[in-house]
Amino acid sequence: MRIEIIGQIEKINGKDVSYGDFAERYLAKNQPVVISDFTEDWRAREDWVNENGRPNLHFFATHFGKSRVQVADCDIREYTDQKRLEMSVTEFVEQWTDNSIENKGNSVLYLKDWHFVKEYPDYTAYKTPALFSDDWLNIYLDSYQMHEDRDNFQKYDQISCSDYRFVYMGGKGSWTPLHADVFRSYSWSANVCGKKRWLFLLPSQSHLVYDRYMKNCVYNIFEEVNETKFPGLKKTTWLECIQEPGEIIFVPSGWHHQVYNLEDTISINHNWLNAYNLSWVWDLLWKDYKDTEESIEDIRDICDDFEAICQRNLAANTGMNLNDFFIFMSRFSLGNMVLLQSYSDKHKTLNSCSSAMAKNMLLNLSTIQKIMMMMISAGGITAKEVYLDLQETLDGPQFLRFVRDMGRTYAMIHKEEEDQALSSEELLQKLSSFADPKMQICSPKDLVEMINHHNTFTSYLLP
Ligand SMILES: O=C(O)CCC(=O)C(=O)O
Ligand SMILES: [Fe+2]
Predict the structure, then answer these.
(1) Are 266 and 50 in contact (CB under 8 A)?
(2) What integer pLDDT is reported at residue 160 of this predicted model?
(3) Which UniProt keywords apply (predicted)?
């Protein structure tokens, strides 16, 4: 089947766009764009690339050879993805080199989802550009796990969910099947070397690549697809992009994409979410929850705790469940409120003239409130043991790190002066000015009320 390509993705120069422009034109409008001029000073572009512009595989084998990585066999489909193998970077490099010398019809291999930053935190391969730094997911995961203390997920957590910052490496012809990203998050992807061809589908056409039960998605848009099963595919229209070395592509939420490496390519990509795409994340999480519930409906009557099983399955299938999401939003809100409190103590004001940084955090809080209201109307959180204890949160070292990372990041994004990093005593003092530290956030309703209370209190300080 031939698919119809109706346009190309816009390209801009990173130097020509401020954070405010980017947020308004691309994050808020959920539009893809390719940005140049952000990667020139990255260490990765020096160390990882030979003078001829091809991957320096020798460098990988000597510096990171022992790492265990996931490698996709691009020729073999397994369920909805490619077959994955596990091997060391040295083995991967050997196979890649053998394949390109002998070219004897071996499978095309593609190293994917390598949590490089987690594994080598002291080797600064690159710096995330400010445009992509309002990243709640990775800031959170640097301090917390998505499913804490849940024995069943310890192993899964550490391997798969430690963060959403990845390195990809593959020879010419390696590719990624059609998909929309995890949690319907945004992604950005930078070519350290090599070229990619991207095909994008507008979210308004997503339903056309699913079967009539909205369960199975087309795997490869260039392969003969069963028209009876996927009658919508012939009506789809696609945007295309050829991404050159050094360029970064912004992939908005919910846009399905299929990707080809046109040359031997190394890329770095992150998944991230923030106030602009939180409703996408919520909508998918709720849909996945309902699907999970429906899939085990027949055992409901014989289960002691049906809800707990649903949440467990949801976390296993998607990487987070409703409880995790609620705790994530609670901690994130708390961090924003503490930082805003600190800002308003210092500047004696918090209003529409406040800094871009303060406005960003106010937007975060109002967006979380909206999503919590949706959660309430959908049925909320029913498990009794899911709550956030404020005292316990303050006592743990993670919260201090989390708030400091957040403060530093927002100051960097908006090019504002960073408040002196808060101490743990100051954390308690700031929090005490809008909440009772003995309190617990037990439900989305508690969180909405706490944010209201905080907002009333901080605007009380207005001159
Ligand atoms: O580069 C690839 O092969 C896939 C990357 C991708 O899907 C993404 O960045 O969202
Ligand atoms: Fe993707």
Answers:
(1) no
(2) 57
(3) Iron, Metal-binding, Oxidoreductase
Instruction: Compute the radius of gyration of the chain from its Cα atoms.
Output: 23
Q: Where are the domains of the chain?
A: 4-153+163-272, 321-460
- Residue 267 and residue 272: Cα distance in Å, rounded? 16
Contacts of 103 (CB under 8 A, 6+ apart): none
* φ and ψ of 305, to 5 deg: -135, 80
Tell me the pairing of strands 4-8 and 237-243. Answer: parallel
pLDDT for the residue numbered 125: 98
For 81, which DSSP code? E
Of 51, 396, 404, 40, nearest to 246 (Cα)? 40
Ligand 1 atom nearest 257 alpha carbon: 7
What six digits make up the tokens of 263? 């040359």
Query: Nearest bound ligand to CA 189?
Result: 1
pLDDT < 50: residue spans in the chain: 153, 156-157, 159, 463
CB 283 within 8 A of CB 253: no
What is d(CA 270, CA 268) in angstroms, rounded to the nearest whole number?
Answer: 7
Residue whose tokens read 């690339």: 49
Cα–Cα distance measured from residue 460 to residue 49, given in angstroms and rounded to the nearest whole number: 56
Q: Cα 101–268–63 angle (5° rounding)?
A: 60
> Which residue of 251, 262, 263 sits with most ligand 1 atoms within 8 Å of its CB, as the best mutation to test the pocket?
251
At 456 the pLDDT is 83
Computed from CA positions of residues 125, 129, 130, 132, in that sequence, does the dihedral angle turn out positive or negative?
negative
In the structure, which protein residues have their CB atom closer than 6 angstroms to any atom of ligand 1?
168, 176, 181, 187, 189, 196, 251, 257, 259, 267, 269
Distance CA 294, CA 19 (A): 42
Among residues 413, 400, 405, the alpha carbon closest in space to that of 360 is found at 413
Rounded to the nearest angstrom, the distance between the alpha carbon of 198 and the centre of ligand 2 is: 10
Q: Residue 72 pairs with which residues in a beta bridge?
A: 84, 110
Over the stretch 273-287, which tens digit does the pLDDT of each residue have? 999 999 999 999 999
Predicted local distance difference test score (pLDDT) of residue 159: 45
Tokens of 306: 């049906």
What amino acid is encoded at 153 in this protein? F
CA distance 358 to 343: 8
The alpha-helical segments, DSSP class H, found in 296-423 are 306-318, 322-347, 356-378, 390-395, 397-413
